[in-house]
Amino acid sequence: MRQAGPRRVVFAPDSFKGTVSAADAAAALARGWLAERPGDEAVLRPMADGGEGTLDAFEAAVPGAVRVPVDVRGPYEGAARVSSSWLRLPGDTAVVELAATCGLGLVDPLRPLEAHTAGFGDAIAAALDAGVARLLLGIGGSASTDGGSGALVALGARVTDASGSPVPLGGGGLGVATAVDLTGLRPLPTGGATVLGDVVNPLLGAQGAAAVFGPQKGAAASDVALLEANLDRFAGLVPGGRRLADAPGAGAAGGTGFGLLAWGARMGSGAAVVASAIGLAEAIAHADLVVTGEGRFDAQSEAGKAPTEVARLAAHAGVPVALVAGVIDEGADPDASGFESSVSLTSLAGDPRSARSEAVRFLEAAGAALARAR
To answer: Mind giving me the DSSP string for 101-119?
Structure first.
């Protein structure tokens, strides 16, 4: 990296979930950097990996992208309907984001047994009704552990109990399921459906949806055991489900990856697809430094979330990359993931609460700290 003269710095963070969008995080980091080095060039490329902010990233990057409003059922029984949207890209491709229809930010308090993905399925159905030829399905940031059953039901599947009645939506309701009929599922669009995921976990087991992600969605230990048993039951009822349960990414979004695979969708790297859409590799090729980040950097980050994809592209271009995270888990190693330097907002703020409540302020401070260090 050049040590003198103006530098070109690419800011490509993911969202800091529940606090700051990817676009606002990129802008805050750039403001902090330019306060220390006003002569530098800041290039903003907010990232996403299939979770919160995926629609925003595509909308900002793809000329001609159009938001299409959609009204979907709420994320748990009794919840108000959700006014959301999907994104239509030129060429009749639809981007549908789970986080915007039934994500964690829409469930307060958390309902680990009742939360479901039916609203996500409603949005997918709306895109199909609009005649799209291809689906890109972002599934990060879910509030449920229902194996994607809610989305499948919204698309025409039947999940029934011993009396032939539909089971309650949500991971808890799968415990009474005795049959899964997928014959009424709507067909995939002609161009297929690609799942934009950010993890490679299987559906079941110690690395599965309930065990790894259930606690993040409010599940106590007893809830995790129940959800694991119910997902196992569901997988046994879905045609070919035992094989699909072991597929990388089947456990993503509380098992929504599994449900979409059962529909016929294929798994893809959310971060890689978004990076391609926003021209990130081209921006990095002419940079002196790349700054990326996310709310929590942990072992899951190293499995393919947005910062790791950014680091991969930077390494390929021979450009150093720095990480800014709300918190860096003790078990995570940014250096091993290719980051030349790293900054924790929690360390800057002194405590996690301040880091979250004043995230923009500390993102600016992180950008300034990185600039001073260079």
So the answer is: HHBGGG-SS--TTT--SHH
